[in-house]
Amino acid sequence: MEKIIRKVFRNQLIVGFISVTLFWYIVYFLVQSHTIPSPILTVTYIWNEKWMLLLHAGASLLRITIALFISLLIGIPLGIILGKNKKINTLLSPFLYYIYPIPKVAFLPVFMILYGLGNQSKITLIIWIIVFQIILSVRDGVLQIPASYYKVMHGFRSPIYQQLIYLIFPSILPSIFTGIRISIGISLATLFFAENYATTYGIGYYIISAWTKMNYEEMFAGIVTLGCIGLLLFIILDKLELKVTPWNYK
Prior knowledge:
This protein has helices spanning 2-10, 12-31, 39-48, 50-84, 86-99, 108-115, 119-143, 147-155, 160-194, 203-212, 216-244. It is mostly helical. The two termini are 31 Å apart.
């Protein structure tokens, strides 16, 4: 029995679930307000509305996946160029340092005017927010590669594509995963805001709709589902990182 208990508490997912549930119950009993429903009632609501929640969660997950994929296509090459070329890095870094801290959610009205009220403006907003994180993560990863590694590659007269395949890309993979991990959290926060406008499907819309109806069990069901989306993405990312960068875990 003791071995089973130890094994359970070594599982971070189980420990996380238990700690969140305990915290939720503590707040529920302390506040004693219908604004914070019981965890049991919320879980029951989630089960009864699981198909509707899956529909909204799927719409949000699709937007995040598309935005993240496009951001990686843009951010990885630009980050490598900035890390490899000092002149371009010197020229563009001030722009990145200036634009990166700006709350880019403020650009949502601009994207709605340019691309309409549909998915395109929401996905564009997410890209606009996370692509800079990807660029800077990749650039910093390239800059951390020791100069001696390049000397070895030059000693073997390796062309640039071999440097990219065998040196640069494997070296920056941990930085890419770090950038993606940060971007997922930012994407979820951004999506919650963006889906409040001209949307019929999406977990952000679901939560705000429940709040306006003062259906707090529905609202917390949406919040839990939003957390599950992030948890799912992090689990997939951790498994993928362990698979493609095993040397980083030794």
